[in-house]
# Entry
Amino acid sequence: MKKAIIVGASSGIGREVACRLIRDGWQVGLMARREQPLVSLREMADDRVDYALCDVTMPDAPDRLLALIDRLGGVDLYFHAAGIGSQNLDLESQIEMNTVNTNAVGFCRLVNVAFQYMKTHGGGHIAIISSIAGVKGLAPAPSYSATKAFQNTYIQALEQLAYSQRLPIRFTDIRPGFVDTALIAGSGFPMKMKSEVVARHIVRSIYRRRHVVVIDWRYRLLVFFWRLVPNCLWRHLPLGHRY
Ligand SMILES: NC(=O)c1ccc[n+]([C@@H]2O[C@H](COP(=O)([O-])OP(=O)(O)OC[C@H]3O[C@@H](n4cnc5c(N)ncnc54)[C@H](OP(=O)(O)O)[C@@H]3O)[C@@H](O)[C@H]2O)c1
# Structure
């Protein structure tokens, strides 16, 4: 039986991916700060699902992850969905710091543990949800777009590290566009995708061992054009106005 750890399994995309893996027969370890959603997921298959509370911004998070891996008896797939994000046109310092602590420091803390574990236990697969927001700096969400770029670059670096050290660790960097979850609740963003549909894309990409995945095709097109815009034009786009 394949074993997966999902960090950020209590809601949104992480929860949907957890449901899919449980239905596919995986043995699954769930992590997040809120307990009740994890308890209800465990009820889907309590002989195959375990959970541990964990705040990725806290220094004890690595020990909690390792203890859960131990209880599972190993890990084949580490899936990192935990993340926060909000618009911050006033550049409130606390929002920026919280986002960096969760999406960059906390992310690095736990992905690092998964890498070290797989390095010494025969390999595995590390998959993460970053975002299309990492492609360019975005005025309405400076720390969010910057931390997503951090995640993209970090995974790219680990992939090179694993390859050069001949480690059997695979990586998948998943970059969705807008998904209708609590993270963007109340916003009027266009082209929102359902989390169930995004989770189906994600699990298929993991099974196919894809390296970088932009979900869906409309956002692949958008990202293609974003990349073509030179900085001298990008800096003049009026994305930071209040409308
Ligand atoms: N929704 C979108 O439009 C969108 C687009 C692209 C990428 N993404 C990315 O997808 C990922 C999942 O987001 P979502 O849209 O599914 O939002 P969500 O429903 O708010 O889920 C976020 C998950 O992260 C967990 N989390 C947040 N802070 C945490 C912390 N300090 N420690 C441990 N877990 C923490 C939450 O659990 P607890 O609160 O229980 O801890 C929850 O399970 C994020 O990385 C997000 O940036 C989202």
In short: The pocket of NAP is lined by residues 8-14, 32-34, 54-57, 81-85, 102, 106, 129, 131, 176, 178-179, 181-184 (CB under 6 Å). Strands lie at 3-7, 27-32, 49-53, 77-80, 124-129, 169-176, 212-215.
